Structure formats: C-alpha cells, structure tokens
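Appendix C reproduces, verbatim, an entry submitted by the partner laboratory led by Prof. M.T., so that reviewers can inspect both the input and the predicted structure.
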Amino acid sequence: MNRLLLTILPSLLVLGAVAACGTDEPAAAPTTTSTASTSANAPAGPPPAPEPAVDGQCPYLGSSFVQEANGQLVRKVRLSADQPNPACFFYANATEVQLSVWVFEGEPGAAEAVVDRAAPVSDSNPATEPAGWEGGSLTNDGGAVYAVAKGGSAVVVTSNQKQTIKAREVVKQVVANLGL
C-alpha cells in the first residue's frame, strides 16, 4: 500500500497543481510580451563550427605565413562557405588539416560562446593577446587551440602542433590583417 501511494502521490500532486492553476479566461497579453522579452534576452549560443567547402586561397592569411608560423608546408587550402570572412583550413597533406582559422563576427554573447566552446574557460589558460582581446589557450591530443574574442568578434585558431604560441602568432596576424 505504501509503495502504491509513493508511486501515485507525485502524479496526483502535479495533476492538482495544474488543475488549480487553470482558468477559463484567456491568457492576458502581458504574459506573451513577457515570454518574448525573456527569449530576446537569452544568451546567444555559438553557431556551428565551419566546415571546409571549396579549395581556394585564404583572403586574410597567406599560406607562406602559416608555413613559417606552424612549421609545416601548406599543400592545400580549403575555405568554408561563410562570408565575408570564410574559415580557412590549411592542409599538411591531402587529408590532414595542420591549421584552421575561424573569424566570427556577430553578437558579443555568441562571440564569447564561440571562444568558450573552442577553449573552455574552466579547462584553458587565459589568452590576452592581441591587446584588448580575451579568451583561452590549451593543448590537447590533436594539438593546440588559441581562441579570443573582443566585442562581437572572435578568432579561433587550431593547430596540429602542441605549442599554443604558434596559434597565438596566427591570431595576432589575422587580427592585424583584418583590422579587428
């Protein structure tokens, strides 16, 4: 009997609460306005990470700079479909991306979310270069990540090398080249 009551009691409580809250009157307009303003103030999440789509040359970062900064020859460059600044993927061979650069521009909350997804604050070292930019840097099994944001802009560089200094130098060059 006790087991039956413990099983049924939560359902009865929920049912009673729902019945007590219900009215025969239609919902008032302020309720709808309140809901709309709540979702408008919700923090922006990061957009999906870009994927390589076409072969091409990175419009804001030269292959020769990447070769020197990352220490590997660039055999191929692919670009995402994003505009005006596509993500750039620099390949060491036909299939291995040695370095990728993603320049995000949008809402400040979304830019911070892009950085936090790439280099989570709780798991990374603070990144504060270039001046005025903030984010994180870390190494992992795949290499290194350096990700920073400023206002509504974010720059994320991943490298197959284990030194975050290489990724940091690329970020600084991208910010300078784009005038961010």
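The helical segments are 2-21, 29-40, 63-70, 108-118, 164-178. Additional entries are available on request from the coordinating office.
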